């Protein structure tokens, strides 16, 4: 599970992939994770475990895109207490749509 070893890469990739799907309706051309989003997530995580604050927005975006039930509270709990699981779940949701579009 890549999100267990380097969650910032998975987070950044999810951000790029969700943005591409929302703005173009197509999968991201190169959803590489080593970018500013990755650095910000890593920095916030290292400086006090605050990466989950960023993760909340992506999780909400994925939930809204696929009409997945949930709430702001459940997003907070998932991204703060189960960050690798949350990131992986979001990645798999995005992957299902990307495969369908290819």
UniProtKB/TrEMBL annotation:
Specify the domain of life of the species encoding this protein. Answer: Eukaryota
What Pfam families does the entry give?
PLAC8
UniProt cross-references to NCBIfam families, sorted A to Z? A_thal_Cys_rich
Name it: PLAC8-domain-containing protein
């Amino acid at each position: 599970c890549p999100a267990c070893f380097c969650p910032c890469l998975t987070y950044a990739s999810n951000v790029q992939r969700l943005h591409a799907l929302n703005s173009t309706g197509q999968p991201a051309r190169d959803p590489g994770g080593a970018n500013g989003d990755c650095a910000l997530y890593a920095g916030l995580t290292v400086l006090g475990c605050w990466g989950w604050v960023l993760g909340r927005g992506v999780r909400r975006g994925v939930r809204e895109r696929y009409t997945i039930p949930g709430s702001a509270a459940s997003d907070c709990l998932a991204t703060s207490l189960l960050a690798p699981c949350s990131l992986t779940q979001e990645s798999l949701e995005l992957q299902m749509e990307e495969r369908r579009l290819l």
